[in-house]
Fold this protein.
Amino acid sequence: MLTFWSRRWDDILQLVLEHLAVVALSIAIASLIGVLIGLLVWNRPIPRSVVIAAAGVALTIPSLALLALITPAFGLGWAPTVFSLVFYSLLPIVRNTVVGLRGVSPAIVEAAKGVGMSPLAVLLRIQLPIAWPVILTGVRVAAQLTIGIAAIAAYVAGPGLGQFIFQGLSSLGSKNALNYALTGTLGVVILALLVDGLFVLITRYSTSRGLRA
């Protein structure tokens, strides 16, 4: 295994960077869309229920099936990968945005309005900062989810470590089949742990000191 890694270190590093890039891009897009949707529906019971239910149902679609369905429209490579990762990331982000905003005490909101703050100011200066740790937890869950699904996107020539996994599985019995599969799998696991640790730090240093647990 060590010999395999030493000989293919450049390829491994390139796939790791590709994996991180496609996950980061997808999470950025999903966060923008998901938080916006959450802001629009968090205080509207019927739209809120419909959106969360729809996102939950969407999450039950098998990733391979989704990738196969969108390939005719998006082709191969980055486009179907990003689309699928954004698709699967929306539920935790929307749900946590709603939960975070609904968790803000009405008394705090009323007090802010009582001192003359506009609804937009209340949202930006009071509600979002208080809800931020919960929202970021949703993004953190989405990131872990997309790191794993990004590996499956190699099925449609997506970027990342999934290429090694699929190469290993498609060449079972050959000399380096196990090395390819294990390298891709270990890489995904290590990336997930590193990204999770990064989100712990982001949460700690971007949350108001008074809100830290």
About this structure: The chain has a mean pLDDT of 89. The first helix runs from residue 2 to 7.
